[in-house]
Design goal:
- With 483 residues, the protein is an alpha+beta fold.
- The chain has four domains: 97 residues, Uridine Diphospho-n-acetylenolpyruvylglucosamine Reductase, domain 2, CATH 3.30.43.10; 119 residues, Uridine Diphospho-n-acetylenolpyruvylglucosamine Reductase, domain 3 (2-Layer Sandwich), CATH 3.30.465; 116 residues, Alpha-Beta Plaits; 78 residues, 2-Layer Sandwich (Alpha-Beta Plaits).
- The protein is built from 17 helices and 19 strands.
- A five-stranded antiparallel beta sheet has the order 5-6-10-8-9. Strands 1-2-4-3 form a four-stranded mixed beta sheet. Strands 13-14-12-15 form a four-stranded antiparallel beta sheet, with helices on both faces.
- Helix 1 packs antiparallel against helix 3 and helix 9 packs across helix 12.
- The longest helix has 15 residues.
- The structure holds flavin-adenine dinucleotide.
- Flavin-adenine dinucleotide binds next to strand 3, helix 5 and strand 10.
- The site of flavin-adenine dinucleotide (FAD) has 37 residues, from strand 3, helix 5 and strand 10.
């Protein structure tokens, strides 16, 4: 491949080989292949080299070389992004920088309720390190066995516990970041309070690798939950779900950790396609909520509080039926159903996805309007609108009509995105609540963000990455896009 490469890229490859050695360079096509395609298989790129640094100094050296030569670099975590953020461009001129060898837990400070980890640690490894110190790291996603904490921070991941503990950004105390030119910001403080000027770390969180490479993070820990009570509740509709959320938060002293909405079709897709998933209730209902309450105390009263709340909700018509988990295995089964929805939907065929958020109270109106809008475009489309209702975040997805061709259905994607995002805008919502922008939603971002916001984003990019080598073609739209 290197014979057809621009001279600058060939030179960068050669110099990176010299710095990282064979253990830090993947070039064999079979080794490189997994880095070329995104999780949803929307994009296939090419690269002459996957650089796998083993230390922050290595990352700094790679970026210094690429900066000097003007060669693009694509940071790559666990490759679970839904927006093609970690996939190199088809041109084959971009170097992929994988953090996978940087997977050390640097320090756990149980007394300070904090830990410091390399960016390439899997999210499950971070959770396990906290648990080993009798602490809790609350970020939890369906992809937690594959995604890396660096990727979680670069995408500002949300997940299943954001309602109580916040999104990834809220869990960060400090970051170590390598800038585009190889300089290192050593911001690995584990302070709760530090008002000394601009909050630089928050620039890199959610920047999807366009402003710097996160190499390590200091993260907040919490007391480990000792009492955890999940309930699977049948509800009449989204309106009832939203009322039940407010009621359960108040009744349990804000002990609700997760509050996930599942329409009937989500239960059908998971029970049909994912082995081992079963409907926990003995008859079908229109919609469900998977609600979990927890405390850091041994608190037998929490279960009766939840039971009482649900009994009253059934009496008032906000809930129709409910089952509380009797064992850890039952809890795991409930969560397996929730976490399998993407898998069930994928197995059912093509789907058009929206990851949106609106204020929680506006969800019922949003769902009614957005449903009408997508069915006006594809009348037999099957709505799979599920997700983190406690955060006002819905995965408002539409599956291909039964028996219809996926490609013809996907031709409606742009029209559906326009329609749904237009409604999101009216509610002052977000067109990407937790999955980021990547390559997929750049044009949509141009329509969604104000002129001034985009100008400031571009000014920040110019200041931190003047040569535009970090993840080009991601996040920031072209200057005249969507206008
Ligand atoms: C089954 C499943 C369930 C999911 N559930 C959720 C969910 O509930 N909530 C949610 O928010 N997301 C969810 N996701 C999406 C995805 O897992 C998250 O976006 C995750 O945070 C991405 O992490 P990653 O390590 O895979 O990053 P990658 O996909 O490798 O990269 C994502 C972006 O971050 C950049 N990047 C990666 N590492 C670094 C670094 N060290 N420094 C700078 N930039 C970097 C990449 O360039 C890219 O732009 C889910 C995905 C799947 C497949």
């Amino acid at each position: 491949m290197s014979s057809t490469l621009p001279a600058s890229v060939a030179s960068a490859v050669e110099r990176i080989r010299a710095v990282l050695g064979p253990a830090g360079c993947l070039e064999d096509p079979a080794d490189v292949e997994p880095y070329l395609v995104d999780f949803r298989r929307l994009y296939r790129g090419a690269t002459p080299l996957v650089a796998c640094p083993a230390s922050t100094a290595d990352v700094a050296a790679v970026l210094a070389i690429c900066h000097e030569l003007g060669v693009a670099v694509v940071p790559h975590g666990g490759n679970t992004s839904y927006c093609g953020g970690a996939t190199p461009h088809e041109s084959g001129d971009e170097i992929v920088l994988s953090l996978r060898r940087m997977n050390r837990v640097r320090e756990v400070d149980a007394g300070n309720f904090s830990l410091t980890v390399d960016a390439g640690c899997l999210l499950t490894e971070v959770q396990a390190a906290a648990e080993a110190a009798d602490r809790y790291f609350p970020l939890a996603l369906g992809s937690e066995g594959s995604c890396q904490i660096g990727g979680n921070l670069a995408t500002n991941a949300g997940g299943l516990n954001a309602l109580r503990y916040g999104v990834a950004r809220d869990l960060v105390l400090g970051l170590e970041v390598v800038l585009a030119d190889g300089r290192v910001i050593d911001g690995l403080s584990s302070l709760r309070k530090d008002n000394t000027g601009y909050d630089l770390r928050n620039l890199f969180i959610g920047a999807e690798g366009t402003l710097g490479v996160i190499t390590a993070a200091s993260l907040k820990l919490f007391p480990r939950p000792r009492t955890v009570e999940p309930a699977f509740v049948a509800v009449p509709d989204m309106g009832a779900a939203v009322q039940l959320l407010a009621r359960t938060r108040a009744a349990t002293g804000d002990a609700v950790t997760s509050f996930e909405f599942l329409p009937r079709i989500a239960v059908e897709l998971t029970t049909r396609h994912v082995p081992g998933v079963a409907d926990p209730l003995d008859r079908p209902y229109e919609a469900y909520v998977l609600c979990e309450v927890s405390t850091a105390r041994d608190d037998p009263a929490l279960r009766s509080l939840l039971e009482g709340t649900l009994e009253q909700a059934i009496h008032d018509g906000l809930a129709l039926d409910a089952v509380l988990a009797e064992s850890l295995a039952q809890r795991a089964a409930l969560w397996r159903m929730r976490e399998s929805v993407p898998e069930g939907q994928r197995a059912e065929g093509a789907s058009i996805k929206h990851d949106v958020s609106v204020p929680v109270a506006a969800l019922p109106r949003f769902v009614a309007e957005a449903t009408a809008a997508v069915l006006a475009i594809v009348p037999a489309g099957r709505l799979v609108a599920y997700g983190h209702v406690g955060d006002g975040n819905l995965h408002f997805n539409v599956s291909v009509p039964l028996g219809e061709d996926g490609t013809a259905f996907l031709a409606h994607a742009e029209a559906m995105h326009e329609a749904v995002h237009g409604i999101v805008r009216r509610y002052r919502g977000s067109i990407s609540a937790e999955h980021g922008i990547g390559r997929l939603k750049r044009e949509a971002l141009a329509r969604h963000k104000g002129h001034v916001e985009l100008e400031v984003m571009r000014a920040i990019k110019q200041a931190l990455d003047p040569k535009g080598i970090l993840n080009p073609g991601k996040v920031l739209p072209e200057p005249d896009a969507g206008r």
